[in-house]
């Protein structure tokens, strides 16, 4: 199997973190500049990373959450990151669905500017207001109410899905300054749980903290 990733993308980083933490025999390939090639599109018509290329005639899986779930349910030790208890598993799935359908839409206009995709000041401010008014309160007051990770004493794939994206906010320094301390502590806690990923995490952090282009100083 081969995991195609973009190393500075949180979507890809979560899957790479599971491959490394479970010490899986899966090759990790940097697909930067290759996602629109005919070969890649034949494998994944959505041309997105991460993509997990399966063995033989099994094709491929994309969507970061689906890949993380697949890696956990098919690998020894995977229950550590995707617990089998049905209630806890459903809550982890719920948090991951919330991330994809709700929270991430607010993150993209804030962070994608570092990839040259400027979605404009209005969308950036709207995204940050949604994080502050809706998403962070749900994260802190529900998902992290009684536990250091989402509904869990130990880190799970839900935390990878959610927390890694917060690094993007650092490219807007005045917004990062407003992020609640408890959110920053949670972000740091999740990153620290995957020491083998430090180089990749630092790469994205460096791109965000070093960003000085249009909108870097935008006020919340
Ligand atoms: N919902 C998808 C999003 C994946 C995605 O949008 N990946 C982007 C990078 S963040 C990508 O691979 N873009 C390259 C392309 O579209 O050619 C997931 O969670 O995996």
Automatic annotation (TrEMBL):
<dbReference type="InterPro" id="IPR004045">
    <property type="entry name" value="Glutathione_S-Trfase_N"/>
</dbReference>
<feature type="domain" description="GST N-terminal">
    <location>
        <begin position="1"/>
        <end position="79"/>
    </location>
</feature>
<dbReference type="InterPro" id="IPR010987">
    <property type="entry name" value="Glutathione-S-Trfase_C-like"/>
</dbReference>
<dbReference type="InterPro" id="IPR036249">
    <property type="entry name" value="Thioredoxin-like_sf"/>
</dbReference>
<dbReference type="Pfam" id="PF13417">
    <property type="entry name" value="GST_N_3"/>
</dbReference>
<dbReference type="InterPro" id="IPR036282">
    <property type="entry name" value="Glutathione-S-Trfase_C_sf"/>
</dbReference>
<feature type="domain" description="GST C-terminal">
    <location>
        <begin position="85"/>
        <end position="211"/>
    </location>
</feature>
<protein>
    <recommendedName>
        <fullName>Glutathione S-transferase</fullName>
    </recommendedName>
</protein>
<dbReference type="InterPro" id="IPR040079">
    <property type="entry name" value="Glutathione_S-Trfase"/>
</dbReference>
<comment type="subunit">
    <text>Homodimer.</text>
</comment>
């Amino acid at each position: 199997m081969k995991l195609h990733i973009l190393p500075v993308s949180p979507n890809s980083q979560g899957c790479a973190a599971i491959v490394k933490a479970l010490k899986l025999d899966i090759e990790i390939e940097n697909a930067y500049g290759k996602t629109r090639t005919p070969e890649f599109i034949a494998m994944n018509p959505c041309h997105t990373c991460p993509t997990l290329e399966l063995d033989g005639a099994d094709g491929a899986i994309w969507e970061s959450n689906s890949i993380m779930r697949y890696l956990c349910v098919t690998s020894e030790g995977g229950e550590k990151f995707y617990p089998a208890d049905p209630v806890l598993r459903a809550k982890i799935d719920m948090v991951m669905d919330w991330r994809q359908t709700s929270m991430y839409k607010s993150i993209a206009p804030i962070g994608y500017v570092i990839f040259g995709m400027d979605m404009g000041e209005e969308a950036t401010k709207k995204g940050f207001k949604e994080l502050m008014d809706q998403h962070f309160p749900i994260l802190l007051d529900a998902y992290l109410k009684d536990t250091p990770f989402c509904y869990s004493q130990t880190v799970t794939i839900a935390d990878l899905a959610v927390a890694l994206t917060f690094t993007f906010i650092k490219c807007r320094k005045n917004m990062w300054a407003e992020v609640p301390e408890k959110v920053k502590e949670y972000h740091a806690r999740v990153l620290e749980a995957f020491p083998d990923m430090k180089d990749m995490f630092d790469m994205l952090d460096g791109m965000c903290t070093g960003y000085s282009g249009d909108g870097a100083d935008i006020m919340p």
